[in-house]
From TrEMBL:
This is DUF2019 domain-containing protein. Transmembrane segments: none annotated. SUPFAM superfamilies: ARM repeat (SSF48371). It comes from the Bacteria. It holds the Pfam family DUF2019. Residues 12-116 form the DUF2019 domain. InterPro entries: ARM-type_fold, DUF2019, PI3K_accessory_sf. The lineage of its organism: Bacteria, Pseudomonadati, Pseudomonadota, Alphaproteobacteria, Hyphomicrobiales. It comes from Xanthobacter tagetidis. Signal peptide: none annotated.
Length: 123
């Protein structure tokens, strides 16, 4: 899967791609397609790194996604904004953890545990 992130993408384009990638990741999870999910993860990581490298660390542009209607988008945005909006990101993870029987709840719970144990240190 080739990267869909063109060089010199704007903040708005990167946020749109972030959402699209998160939605594709959700579909890959539903299909139990870990190979596709992992490739998509690499693309999301690239988008996140590009936002971080922009002057002023533009990962803050992902904060509105903490209210996105899709749980996967909210989860990915929360994990991606822990360093730039820790309270809002953590609150989103805690809310997701309370939604039972979803992969996002499990993932949010594991992320919170890693944060609390000092295993994960957002940068």
């Amino acid at each position: 899967m080739k990267s869909r992130i063109p060089p010199n993408s704007s903040v708005e384009e990167l946020v749109e791609l972030f959402v699209a990638i998160a939605l594709d990741q959700e579909e890959a999870n539903i299909d139990f397609d870990s190979r596709r999910f992992n490739k998509l993860y690499g693309q999301m990581d690239e988008a996140r790194k590009r936002l971080k490298a922009m002057p002023g660390d533009k990962r803050s542009a992902l904060v509105p996604l903490l209210q996105h209607p899709n749980l996967e988008v909210r989860l990915r945005a929360a994990k991606s904004t822990l360093a730039v909006a820790p309270e809002a990101a953590r609150a989103t993870l805690e809310a997701l953890r309370k939604i039972t029987h979803t992969p996002q709840a499990s993932d949010a719970g594991m992320c919170l545990r890693a944060l609390d144990q000092g295993i994960c240190k957002p940068t």
